[in-house]
Amino acid sequence: METIYLDHAATTPIDPAVIEAMLPLMSDVFGNPSSVHSYGRKARQSLDEARRTIAQRIHAHEKEVTFTSGGTEADNLALIGTALANKDRGKHIITTVQEHHATLHTAEYLEREGFEVTYLPVDENGVIKVEDVREALTAETILVSVMYVNNETGTIQPIQEIGDLLKEHQAYFHTDAVQAFGLLEIDVKKMGIDLLTATAHKINGPKGIGLLYAGKHVKLQPLAYGGEQERKRRPGTENVANVVGFQKAVELRTNKEAEYRNLYQAYKELFIQTLQEEGIAFEVNGKLENTIPSIINISFPHMNVESLLVNFDLNGVAASSGSACTAGSIEPSHVLVAMYGANNERTKNAVRFSFGSANTKENVKEAAERVAGIVKRMMKNR
Amino acid sequence: MNDNQHIRVVVGMSGGVDSSVAALLLKQQGYDVVGIFMKNWDDTDENGVCTATEDFDDVVRVCNQLDIPYYAVNFEKQYWDKVFTYFLDEYKAGRTPNPDVMCNKEIKFKAFMDHAMSLGADFLATGHYAQIREQDGKVEMLRGVDQNKDQTYFLNQLSADVLKKVMFPLGHLPKKEVRKIALEHNLVTATKKDSTGICFIGERNFKEFLSNYLPAQPGEMQTFDGVVKGKHDGLMYYTLGQRQGLGIGGPGEPWFVVGKNLQKNILYVEQGYTHDSLYSDGLIATDVNWINPVESAPSFSCTAKFRYRQADSEVKVEVLEDGNVRVIFREQQRAITPGQAVVFYQDDVCLGGGTIDKVFKDGSFLDYVG
Fold it and tell me: What is the CATH number of domain A16-253?
């Protein structure tokens, strides 16, 4: 049985061209970019070029890009780094209830360290209100962190509007754009974004490499201390091969965002259409028109997400639940709870399917048919 | 490869050595093995580490060593409703419950069995030390070969219908051999300590645990003649025949718990291990389960266990009209404890069992619990 991958929001396969681009950095160009000799310079050259290419994609200056180990570290650096460096201007931070845990748990840590954090709610479509941000702002607010696209539902947040609002306020604006980067066009200057998180492995790049964009004006304190790398914001010998892989992944998508969106939108529509044709009951979580094409979150009434996901996997369909369910502790997804309330059945039977490079029209349709077949069988055996 | 590859066996994996080896043996026999970890209780140890997370981590490692898929399932709610509530209710009634028997009946071989079947399983397997024999269409449960490890006592509430869909891959092995197999295959759980006691209490102080859920009502310790011997911490903390923790000094033989009076909140104590009041010659059991219908009912002879790891005793069983049983002991028994299971055997075949409800001697009920 062919297994079908529908979990691109978790991670993606590395594009062969990316692997190709990385190989020389693991063999010939092995130098340490900080070294004073030719080996070092060659590595530094690759590093600089990659940084420039990637920075351009979000309309940033190359000196504004700090490479990290991934999205989680970038979120930590954004929140902790700005909080510690700007606490003389205030100790208030605004974020939302539906952020990724890399943001939420960092915010909770800062609360324990004496910062005050406001968690804004979302409406039933999973969108935050710009008005709520305005009302939450105080003279003490130093940071507003709102994710660009929610990783569980794919819901797109009003980033431009929040950016506009904050142009008149001292607070920095951070957005975790991990699910948006490479699929939505991003212009940090136009959008009023001061800090932005992105990662390579969601766009067919390698794991273990991400970035934090921080505008020139942003005061940021590092999380680690050591050498002069990354302008002291992230010391440690640079992961040059991964950075170059990141660069290649970005290049492969350059000016092709719309093309990818159309392709994934077609997959999404085909998936929904097939489920409808199969006649099974399901509900889409979030407002379809306002979600990114690559992600769909579906609740299957009367089903139990644990049985669903295991059955999908045993039948070769790889999907996930937004909720962390390690060791059998099923916490209902905090995102769906924020949208529908803790007692809504939708929070307990939701599955996220996410489309990408491992898909074809054929395997998306096949996956939907398998999903429908399992749901039908489970309905019968209830 | 053989036909077993088309037979899906879901193995309940706890992260211990027994279920690890059960999965290993099934994999070696060529079955389509799926490992599933059950989370029934939310608990963190003194370092703030969730014990279930640690155990699941071992399940993951073992399954990866065996190259089988692994998942987790949560039955905390069912466990609370069906096992823990019963556990507390029994203590409130002054009895000594057996949550492992209830867990097997309601969770492992019911809720978990249903889950396994919903995943297309043909069989559910566990690392219990018990054997299943199928003969002329009749399915029976036999004691595990390792007499010291035999767990049929805890499995007495299963039915032949359930056992048809069950495998006990360790039933024919001594525990020592299981450890050896685990070591030979470098399983990460090979040297892991066996879990002791009741799963949700673990290594913790039992008194302290129980006091989180039931208010303790201290009262007096008395002899049956009304002589006050000291204070007790709450009747639920004591079980029949118990010697430890009474704190009664003085000359003569040690003191033992011989009964409880719930209404007056009195704990009865008497002197001597073989004190007459601890002995009985029969019992009434409720919630009786027969693995297969009993052919010789309403009255037959067999052997019985009244506690885990106790030698069998010869008994006569009378099946009563309401389905309960009267069990007459061939020889007097010490400290038969209401709430515990009585389990019946014909040689190595486990016939079933029930919950000890009342205990009698010379034709009249003992007020062990009153």
Answer: 3.40.640.10
B103 has catalytic annotation: yes
A303: nearest CA in chain B? B118
Active site residue A154: no
Say if the Cβ atoms of B71 and A310 lie within 8 Å: yes
User: Which of A248-257, B22-31, B237-246, B329-338 has the weakest average pLDDT?
Assistant: B237-246
Residue A313: its chain B contacts at CB < 8 A?
69, 71
The residue in chain B having the minimum alpha-carbon distance to the alpha carbon of residue A331 is B74
Percent helix, percent strand, percent coil in chain B, to nearest 5: 25, 30, 40
At the fourth CATH level, which superfamily is domain A4-12+256-380?
Aspartate Aminotransferase, domain 1 (3.90.1150.10)
Cα three-residue angle A36-A39-A44, rounded to 5 degrees: 75
* Angle between helix A71-85 and A101-112 (nearest 10): 30
Phi, psi of B213 (to 5 degrees): -115, -30
Smallest Cα distance from B351 to chain A, Å: 31
Strand partners, B37: B13, B72
Mapping DSSP to helix (H, G, I), strand (E, B) and coil, where does residue A243 land?
helix
Nearest CA in chain B to A313: B69
List chain A residues with pLDDT less than 50.
none
Contact A306 B42 (CB under 8 A): no
pLDDT per position as a tens digit, B298-309: 899 999 999 998
Asked whether the ipTM of the predicted complex exceeds the cut of 0.90, the reply is no
